[in-house]
Amino acid sequence: MSEREKILEIKHLKTYFPIKGTLFKGKAGLVKAVDDISFDVFKGETLGIVGESGSGKSTLGRTILRLTEPTDGEIIFEGNHLEHLGNRQLQKHRQHMQMVFQDPFASLNPRMRVGQLVGEPIAVQKILSKAERTRKIESLIEKVGLPKEALAKFPHEFSGGQRQRIGIARALSMNPKFIIADEPVSALDVSVQSQVLNLMLDLQEEFNLTYLFISHDLSVVKHISDRVGVMYLGRIVEIGPKHDIYNNPLHPYTQALLSAIPIVNFEKKREKIQLSGEPPSPSDPPTGCAFHTRCPKAFDRCKVERPELIHNESGQQVACHLYSQEDNKKILNAESKILQLTKQS
Ligand SMILES: Nc1ncnc2c1ncn2[C@@H]1O[C@H](COP(=O)(O)OP(=O)(O)OP(=O)(O)O)[C@@H](O)[C@H]1O
Questions:
Q1: At 148, phi and psi to the nearest 5?
Q2: Phi/psi at 262 (5° precision)
Q3: How far is the CA of 137 from the centre of ligand 1 (A)?
Q4: Does one domain contain both 90 and 196?
Q5: Of 163, 173, 174, 179, which has the fewest CB atoms closer than 10 Å, so is most exposed?
Q6: DSSP state string for 233-260
Q7: Which residues form a coiled coil (predicted)?
Q8: Domain match, 150 and 213 both
């Protein structure tokens, strides 16, 4: 099988925010929102990123586009390092990378009509004539399933789902290759959510798009993703093909997250795993594995040594000492024996 082509490579990315007015051992306190993250995104896929509120998902997305500056690490888009580029160079690459937000108009002028909002990014570029621009805007609004008449209206005249369609049209106006969608359907009713997700899937196929899809909602991520990465306190604790993550979660945190969502297949009942306590603060993360304070399977090593991501054969990676190379087999075997016993009882 030929190797899949990478569109984005993230290497040891860190985004730390100083906490104003705090000093710890003479240094300013830091929120480690993204703390040494590495992964690849392949052309044409959707990589879903899930995790609880505050795990660093949005900061990760914003840092990749350099809307937030990285503290350290590499961001390589189509072979080009973005992390140190000056503004002008960065703009050249950034037109291929767009972001879709939960509230697409929160930061935009509410007095602008939809036509202006969708066309603004292309107008700034000054490549198309006015007539070409109009044609493009009309075609985009139809691609997202809205009538041309929508262009003359204001955003507040639309429902949440329609506004998100307009947000997507705006993102598409630059002919991007890669879109980071940050909780794009979280504010919508469930029935509208699936319409917008299906639209995104159709557009992905038509325009050959790659998505990084950020959400706290595991069901939404399951619907749209090819692979899934699970974040906890600024780190990726597990990443792999969707099928593996949802059917055979390895990390105790992924297992707990998944145990909380209802499943349709009643034969495959899952026991709900209750996690104790709230996630710790990213300004004062626990030593060792950041999850050890809430992990039902933690042992001594977890308190002192931070686990790195290790691969299994199907490309699933997990950062957990339960699966460290030497004792990997022993523990996996022990787990499957326990599973068998639970089934029999
Ligand atoms: N500009 C900032 N300055 C200081 N701290 C920040 C900033 N942005 C985010 N943080 C902190 O970084 C951590 C990660 O936040 P982030 O918004 O990335 O998480 P998230 O997983 O997207 O959660 P949510 O879904 O609630 O937005 C949080 O503790 C947050 O308070």
A1: -55, -30
A2: -65, 145
A3: 34
A4: yes
A5: 174
A6: TTEEEEEEEHHHHHHS--SHHHHHHHHT
A7: none
A8: no
**Residues 215, 83 share a domain:** yes
Residue 321 has phi, psi (to 5 degrees) of: -65, -15
Is 55 touching ligand 1 by the criterion CB < 6 Å? Answer: yes
**Together in a domain, 41 and 76:** yes
Residue 101 lies in a domain: no
User: Does residue 278 line the site of ligand 1, with CB under 6 A?
Assistant: no
Local mean pLDDT, 10-residue blocks, the chain (345 residues)? 84 93 67 96 98 95 97 97 93 92 82 93 79 93 97 94 95 95 94 96 97 96 97 97 95 93 58 78 92 94 95 88 68 48 47
Q: Which two structure tokens, joined as six digits, stand for 204?
A: 């992905």
Atom of ligand 1 nearest to the CA of 18: 4
- In terms of Cα–Cα distance, which of 64, 56, 41 is closest to 237? 56
- Looking from the CA of residue 61, the nearest atom of ligand 1 is 18
Q: What is this structure's pTM?
A: 0.90
163 part of a folded domain? yes
Tell whether ligand 1 has an atom less than 6 A from the beta carbon of residue 215: no
Residue 1 is assigned to a structural domain of this protein: no
In which domain, by residue range, is 146 found?
106-175
Q: What share of the chain is helix, strand, coil (3-state, %, to 5)?
A: 40, 25, 40
Tell the residue number behind the tokens 């189509």, with chain if given: 78
* 194 and 293 belong to one structural domain: yes
Say yes or no: 244 and 309 in one domain: yes
| Total Cβ atoms within 10 A of residue 27 | 9
Instruction: Examine residue 116 and state whether it is found in any structural domain, yes or no.
Output: yes
Cα-Cα-Cα-Cα torsion 301, 260, 227, 105, nearest 10 degrees, comes to: -120
Tell whether 187 and 271 lie within a shared domain.
yes
Rounded Cα distance between 211 and 2, Å, is 21
